[in-house]
Each structure stands twice: as C-alpha cells, then as structure tokens.
Amino acid sequence: MREGGSGTDGSADPGTAVDARVRVRGIYTTAVTQRLLEAGHTVVQASEPIRARFETDFPTAPADVRIETTRDRQGLEVSGDPDCVDCVLEHLDSLALDTFGWADSVPRGAVFDGAVHEADGGRGAPVSLGDGRRGYLTYDDVDGYVDAGDCYRLQVREPTPPWDDDAPRLTPGLTVEGGLCTLSRKRNGVGADFDGARAEELVGMTDLLSIAIPEGWGLRWHRSAVDADLEAMTAALENAVSRAQTLESRLEEVPEEPGDPARLADPQATAWLWFGRESRFALDEVRRTAETTMVGHHRIKAGDRSASAAVDFAEAVASPTGEEAFPFAAVSRQFGPTTGDRLALGHGKPDGRLITLGTGEVTDWSEDGSLTLERAMRGGGIYDALEVPIQDGDVAITKLKEGRWWYPTTYKGADGTTKGTYVNVCTPVELFSHSARYVDLHVDVIRRADGSVSVVDEDELEAAVADGQISSELAEKARSVAAAVERALS
Fold first, then answer.
1. Domains plus CATH for the chain?
2. How far is CA 277 from CA 4, 280, 282, in A?
3. Which of 4, 45, 239, 376 fits as disulfide partner to 470, beta carbons 3.0 to 4.6 Å?
4. How far apart are CA 57 and CA 42, in angstroms?
C-alpha cells in the first residue's frame, strides 16, 4: 500500500484485480460501501440501514476483508486476506491529500511467541514480540500466575493503530474467523455467541452441512449468520476450515513449546487509514451520492460520539444540498471546544505516531472556526529552531483555525516580551472537543525576536517523501503553504 497523502482526485479505479467480499462497520460505512461498490467489490453482511440505502443485494456471505472504524473514530482498520486488503486499499487511500495509510507489523490474527516484559500488577502485562514489537496480555486470559520472562504462544486478537498508545491485545490459543462463524482451539463442540431460539436453530443446522469441523477445534456461530441459508453457512464453515488448516500448516515446523519472541504466522494483513479534514469532506461527497448528507457529516461524527444521533436526526428532517458551509459554531457550542475549555494539541506524524504537544486553555473563540490556546511552559531546553531557552513563566499562545493548513505559536516570557513565533505547516486543522488534530508536514516557518523569518526543516520533508511517508503532491502543497506564510511574515 502507499503511505502518506495520495494527491489523487479520489476517483475509483475502474479496473479491479480482485473482487473482494468486504464487511464494513462504523461511522464511515455508507461512504465506504458506495466507494467499494463503484470499484466492483462485493459488500457482505450489510446492516439494515445500509440495505435500505442501496438498491442492490448484499449477500450474507463470508468476508475476505473486514473494515471497521477505529475506536477514536479518526480512521479505519482494514484487515483480511493480504491480496484483498491491498486491492481494497487502492480505492480508499486516495480520497484526499490528507489520507494517510500504514501497514501493521502486528496484524489481526497473527501468531507470535512472546515473552512477558514485566508483570507488576494491573490487569495485564506488556509482552515482547521480537524486533521491537510489543503487545498486551490480560491476566484473565491466562491460566496460572504470570511473571516477567514467561513465554507464551499468542495470537493478535485486537490490533491497534500507530497513533494509539495502547498495545495490540494478545490471547493464548488459536482462533480463525470464517465471516459468519469462528473456529477456536480454546473451545469444544458447536455453539453460538448469543442466546435464544435462533442460536439453537443455527447449532442444529450445523449437522446438515457437508463440511466437517477439524479435530481439536470448536465452532461458534455469530449473530450475523441468523439470516444465512444452508449454502451461505456451508461457505462460511468451509472458509473457516480452510483458514484453520492454512494456519496449522504454517505452524507445523514450529516447536510445540514457545521459544524466543518472534512472529510465527501472519495469515492476515492489517492496514490503518487515518482521515484528515479534507478526507472526511471527500467522504461526505461520496456518501451524498447514496443518502442525504449534511455538510461536515463525518467531521462532526468523528469529533464526538454523542454527535452521531444529532447528525442522524438533522439529516432525517432536512434535505441539505451540500452547498452550505460547515456549521463550526453550532458544533463547537454543542460539543466544544469553546472559551474556557481545555484543549490538547494532537500532533500527528507522517509515520503514524501521535504526540501530544501539551494542553492549554481556550482563551478566545470565534464563530468562524478560530480560537486562541494558551499554555504555560516549564523551564528547560530550548524552543526548536528559534534557539531560545525555555524558562519558567513562559507562555505559548497558539492561534488555531478549523481547516487551515498551518497554525502559529508565539512564545512570550513572563515579562511579556516576545521570544519568537513558530508556524507549523500541517494537514488541515480539525478542532475536536478535547483535541486539535492534524498531521505535521515537517517544513515550518519561524519568526525570531529580531524580526528575521526563515523556512526550516525542508530536509525532513524531503526525507519523508523519499521514505514514502508523504506523497509528492502533499509535499508540494506543504512547500507552497510555507512559502506563502514566509511572505506574509516578512
């Protein structure tokens, strides 16, 4: 997959090498479904709202790829068959300049030998997986006492995006997903992961299927299988059995006892997509072809979980044309940030990391999407590029505006003297309720206390382009923004 902003016009490639079956969930589902259907993929296990919005049949069939909104609603997890994942990403990672994508070295379903790094209380322990990779093992998932240095054979149950501080969740034993069902070495027999008459019916129908459950594996049907016919159930179980056999074959040469930390098998691939502000508005345009969509639909939903119901209500009672401006003032008044709120600077990096530069108080707010953030600084070190010492009593005054490709921070001493201004060039700023979010584009502009102005860190931008973290189109945008800011400050 490509990393960094794509710089394309966002149109789907009409030629698709693989017709992938994709299951989609989360706040981006309608837009992603539209995009994938246009690209010739098959969306399966669709929810009732999606079935109502599209004039097409959605099979109840196993998925080659699962797409889910990340827990913080900033992007997507794309996991499944490696070839299918690559093919699906071709139609999703080119939405806008500020769409970023990264492959995961600890993908969903991968099997590792891991060693407990430390076990000092809490609910679980960090685990070393080799080559600098880490995971997290919950004590309740393990029989017996867990101590530092203990080795386990573990599988990735829940991967985490690169901008998240959490480590991937690991569990002992082997499990494979079949789309409508799961095979697991940790269970016996046939069952369902829900209760009731429909669950009992699924269990009973399993005897009618022509596919045998492999020895040593237990079968659990998911609620998504309730509407499946015998043919779909057979395909799902066949898919799960095939995956279980593939996983077993990859582990045949591995000793039964866990060894040094290492990756043993990765039958699936996982990739992460991070959407910036322009990407979310591009998704609005895609969604608008299938359903009434207010301006800023995905931007609002990404900012606050409680906003989803409000957006759905507004779209249900109105017919927005999509030509209005994003209602920043209404969104900010309802969900924040406004004057007096605490706001963090969520400084994303092109390699996927997220760094919080600090948290300050919103001291001024405007309906046009502008606000002022003030942060008290602790003494020690120097201000980057300005080469001025940081002293106790210094104040950082940051001016942020929704949708702008840059923002300035002016540093002042305790006596009010200006120490310099640092202008960060970045993807369009989004002002969520608790954090401003963007991806830093390396190149910046500084204005020193003597009034001299310089563009800095251009070499870091060039290195990011060479590494494939930033596209050439996005880099050119960053340079043009930096040049305009330099002219304005000179």
1. 21-104+271-288 (no CATH), 111-173 (2.40.50.140), 175-250 (no CATH), 342-489 (2.40.380.10)
2. 15, 5, 9
3. 4
4. 9
CA 375 to chain centroid, in Å, comes to 28
DSSP structure string for 192-256: ESS-SHHHHHHHHHGGG-SPPPPTT-EEEE-GGGTT--HHHHHHHHHHHHHHHHHHHHHTTTS-S
SS3 11: coil
d(CA 222, CA 225): 6
- The string of pLDDT tens digits covering residues 322-362 is 557 888 998 999 899 999 999 999 999 999 999 999 999 99
Question: With pLDDT > 90 as the criterion, what percentage of the chain qualifies?
Answer: 80
Alpha-carbon separation of residue 44 from 221, 228, 288, 333 (angstroms):
16, 11, 21, 39
Whether the pLDDT of residue 63 is over 50: the answer is yes
Tokens of 224: 């998504």
Residue listed under structure tokens 């009672």: 317
Under DSSP, the state recorded for 292 is -
pLDDT above 80: residue 7 = no
Interior/surface letters 435-455, b for 16+ CB within 10 angstroms, e for the rest:
bbbbbbbbbbbbbbeeeebeb
> Tens of pLDDT along 382-441?
998 899 999 999 999 999 999 999 999 999 999 999 999 999 999 999 999 999 999 999
Using alpha carbons, list the distances in angstroms from residue 80 to 85, 108, 268, 308.
Answer: 6, 8, 5, 28
Residue pLDDT, tens place only, 148-180: 999 999 999 999 999 999 999 999 999 998 778
* Closest alpha carbon to 72 in 162, 155, 1, 157: 162
> Is 0.85 surpassed by the pTM of this model?
yes
Quote the CA–CA distance of 243 and 178 in Å, as a whole number: 8
**Would you say residue 222 has pLDDT above 50?**
yes
Extract the tokens encoding 194. Answer: 């829900």
Please compute Rg for the chain using Cα positions: 25
* Cα angle 236-239-242, degrees, rounded to a multiple of 5: 150
**pLDDT tens profile 318-331:** 655 555 788 899 89
CA atoms within 13 A on the CB side of 244: 26
Q: What pLDDT sits at residue 53?
A: 93
Residues 332 and 341 sit within 8 Å (Cβ to Cβ): no
pLDDT of residue 10 exceeding 70, the answer is no
